[in-house]
Amino acid sequence: xxxxxxxxxxxxxxxxxxxxxxxxxxxxxxxxxxxxxxxxxxxxxxxxxxxxxxxxxxxxxxxxxxxxxxxxxxxxxxxxxxxxxxxxxxxxxxxxxxxxxxxxxxxxxxxxxxxxxxxxxxxxxxxxxxxxxxxxxxxxxxxxxxxxxxxxxxxxxxxxxxxxxxxxxxxxxxxxxxxxxxxxxxxxxxxxxxxxxxxxxxxxxxxxxxxxxxxxxxxxxxxxxxxxxxxxxxxxxxxxxxxxxxxxxxxxxxxxxxxxxxxxxxxxxxxxxxxxxxxxxxxxxxxxxxxxxxxxxxxxxxxxxxxxxxxxxxxxxxxxxxxxxxxxxxxxxxxxxxxxxxxxxxxxxxxxxxxxxxxxxxxxxxxxxxxxxxxxxxxxxxxxxxxxxxxxxxxxxxxxxxxxxxxxxxxxxxxxxxxxxxxxxxx
Length: 427
Known about the structure:
The protein has 427 residues and is of the alpha/beta class. The chain has helices at residues 23-39, 63-76, 89-99, 106-117, 121-135, 144-147, 167-197, 213-221, 264-269, 271-278, 294-307, 327-331, 350-360, 378-387, 408-414, and strands spanning 4-10, 43-50, 80-83, 102-105, 202-207, 238-243, 249-254, 282-288, 315-320, 339-341, 366-374, 389-396, 399-407. Helix 1 packs across helix 4.
C-alpha cells in the first residue's frame, strides 16, 4: 500500500518584494507538486495552503495551520507530510514534533524520485552524493530513524541497508563517491575525445521535465529510451547518431529534465552528466506548448542554462504537443528562424525541425560548390554521394560536373576540383 501524504504549502515561500502569487500560479504550482508526489508513489490524503506575508522561522507555516494539519494527519492516519518548499533542519524537526509524522520537503522528494529512476552506476552515484550532502546538516537531533533505512518516500537513502550517522564516515563516503565520479568523468572525457576525433557536433535536448524530450529523441533516432508521463523518467544521458537532410551527421543527446527550484545539490551532482549540454554545438529547448506555465517553465530552464554558462549557445525552441491544441489554433502556428512547432507523438513537423537544425548548426557548416571530378575518383564520388546534398549533376568527357552543398570537412577535399564560379548561397 502506498504511503498516504498530506500536502502543505506556504504561499509566502513564493512571494518576492515585487511579485505576488496569483491564484492561477498557485494552482499550476500545486498541480506540479501533485505530479511529483504521484511520481514518488504516494497517495494524497489532503492539501493545505497558507498565505502569509513571511514564513515562520521555526516551522515555515503558522501555528494555527500546523495544528490543523496535525489534526488532519491523525484523522486520516497519514504517515507522511510533504511540504512544497525547502525546509531547514530545525523547521523539519519542529514540524515533525507537532504533526507526529515524517516530514519531507520538496528537495528530499525530488531526490527520492531521482533515486527511483537512476539506472546507470553513474546516475546512482550522483543521486547518492546529492542525498548525502542534503542529509549532513540534518543529522543533529536525529535518532534511530536515521541509522536504519526503511521503505517508502524519503527512505531510499544512500548505502546498502545501513547509514551510519557518524559525520566522519559520511564525509569519507562523500569523498569516495566524488573520486568515483571523477573516474567516470575521465572515462566520459576519453569517450568524448574519441567521438571528437571524427568531427561530429553534438545537439543536446534540454527542457522542463515531462516536456517530451525522450519521445522526440526516440522518434528521431529510434533509440528506445524510456518514455513516461512520470517526472524525471530520464536521468542517464543517452547519445545516438542522427543524419540531417543535408546528410551531415550529428550526435543527439537526451538529458535530465529541469524543474522549478531544482535543488542546487542535484545541479552540482549531475554536472558530469550535464557536460554534454555544455559541449553541445546546438541546444534544442523542448517545451510543452499546451502548458499554461510554458513561459515560467522557459525561464526556469534558462536559469539552469545560465548556471551551466551556455546561454550564449545557439538554440532552437521546439514547441511540442501541438496535436493537443484545437485544429484552428494549430493552423495559426508558424515556424520561425529559432522556433518550430511539432508533435513528437504524432510525428508532426519533424522535417521542419531537422531543416532548422541544419540551418542553425554552425560547426562543419555547409559550403556551396561547383565541381568537376574524374569518374575514376570512385572513392571521392562515394563520399560526395554519402555526405553532400547534390543539387545538379551532369556527365561529360569522363568527368562528373556537380553543384553541391557539402560540409566544410568534405569541402576542403573538393577545393582542387572546384570550378571558378560558384553558385550563390541559397537563402
